[in-house]
Amino acid sequence: MKLKTTALATALIVAGMAWGANLRDEPIQPIAAAKVTNPAMVELGKKLFFDPRLSRSGFISCNSCHNLSMGGSDNLKTSVGDKWQQGPINSPTVLNSSLALAQFWDGRAADLREQAGGPIANPAEMAFTHDLAVGTLRTIPGYVAEFKSVFGSADISIEKVTQAIAAFEETLVTPNSPFDQWLKGDDKALTKQELAGYKLFRDSGCVACHNGPAAGGTSFQKMGLFEPYQTKNPAKGRAAVTGQDEDRMNFKVPTLRNVELTYPYFHDGEAATLEAAVDIMGRLQLGRKYSQAEIADIVAFLKTLTGDQPTFVMPLLPPSSSATPKPDPWAK
Prior knowledge:
Low-confidence stretches: 1-5, 9-19
Number of helices: 12
Order of helices and strands: HHHHHHHHHEHEHH
Helix content: 25-40%
Strand content: under 5%
Strand order of the largest sheet: 1-2
CATH topology of the largest domain: Cytochrome Bc1 Complex, Chain D, domain 2
Structural class: mainly alpha
Distance between the termini: 37 Å
CATH class of the largest domain: Mainly Alpha
Largest sheet: 2 strands, antiparallel
CATH architecture of the largest domain: Orthogonal Bundle
Shape: globular
Oligomer: single chain
CATH superfamily of the largest domain: Cytochrome c-like domain
């Protein structure tokens, strides 16, 4: 699988240079605000992100599992899919996902465009097919006109659908967190406890995996280096993609941005609180047993990674026509 560097990541490097001498030399860098170059495509992608008609039931949208009012996640151990199926894995946040080296916990999608098509056709999620989803959109005159305006052609394809959704998702970054303000030279942005927590986080070695603008998302790591991670969740991690047994329990390191909003934690959602997550990660990944005071300090730091949440006008979805399939969440 070829992994791509996003234009947003390049912009972050340029922005970092512009911040100049005031930018502290730390393993985590600030997040830059998104720069929208094609607002019409972003607006179309926003509508598609919120539109449940891309699902078989006509009830589930991208926002169902990546709720933008809840940190871009759903705060469930595993998500609810078609016919109330219990999903197999915790839903990662969509916020700042454009900064990741790949998508999904196992990295099976190289970028946001590839990821956006997955849930639509997954029988345990939105449970449609790409052909049926596109066929539904073609029955909605407002979408036909908007696709023509954005792409220069009234023809709708799954490639255009996922391109538009990805364009919207690339805008879902969360700059200006207290920690970012501190990184850019504001000594008053963090309290003594928050700063102590960051120094403990950094000096303990957490930044070996949680680094860069997203404080994670840029590598795959084995969960359970010093102790095996005990879970009933069947997810294999990267092994599901590579077929190699040595990749079992290797998962994409999650971003820590907005982590106070995206509970529960880990691929199986078994850590209900940040305190529990810090304790487990200390023991399993670092071979270190943090005291309650140390955990409190690290958690205080982690909460400083919550940035400005995306704000936008909720989309008004174009109305269905008489040819549009009717929603039926109770279909057998």
